[in-house]
């Protein structure tokens, strides 16, 4: 691989993941960390990347926490595929916990068209509104509202969750790495942990841009929940997660219907399949 090809590959990784580390890139491309630092310096000089401590982010990366609406639009096709994959784990009559998040909102939209008998507990105002008029039973967990994510979190939410037992929980995560699943807000992490403990089985819905990232507060180890992600995820990364005891499912992004792309096709009509990245 030439330096130009390697730098192009680094840009592709930045586009997919949102950030990369020098150590990871050196291991991936089998070159020295000095070589990778030179690559990142070249990309930064050309305005294509921004150096960070130990790595880099895309030059255009916004240095603030995006709103829920911005998150909802980001990588929508991947989120639709992940939500489709999650559907196979849900049966009529289940009691579900749906965490706040843009991917769980897509899942909620699918649920109301697929099922008539579900009991849904959620800490998400958008999810509750999405299920309004669906005929499904919905319990909104109390708590303090985060204006950024429209999530209800905190001691009141955790206390309410302790009163219930669900069949499955579907959670979001801001970061997924070898240490586990994480989120930037400690109160949000406590709430997610309580959701996991209130369910018989837990699933984390995280598109490839969340993988390899670590944020402030960890709420679960990899082995404690099944990770559902998309095909843009690094095979090496997924193998490392599996070695830590994680169950991993990969949704196919080719959600086409009669020539429509995933963003054009009606929700619930796409196709998903598990892809074996280890093959």
From TrEMBL:
Residues 3-58 form the HTH deoR-type domain. SUPFAM superfamilies: NagB/RpiA/CoA transferase-like, Winged helix' DNA-binding domain. Keywords: DNA-binding, Transcription, Transcription regulation. InterPro entries: ArsR-like_HTH, Carb_Metab_HTH_regulators, DeoR-like_C, DeoR_HTH, NagB/RpiA_transferase-like, Tscrpt_reg_HTH_DeoR_CS, WH-like_DNA-bd_sf, WH_DNA-bd_sf. GO terms for molecular function: DNA binding; DNA-binding transcription factor activity. SMART domains: DeoRC, HTH_DEOR. This is DeoR family transcriptional regulator.
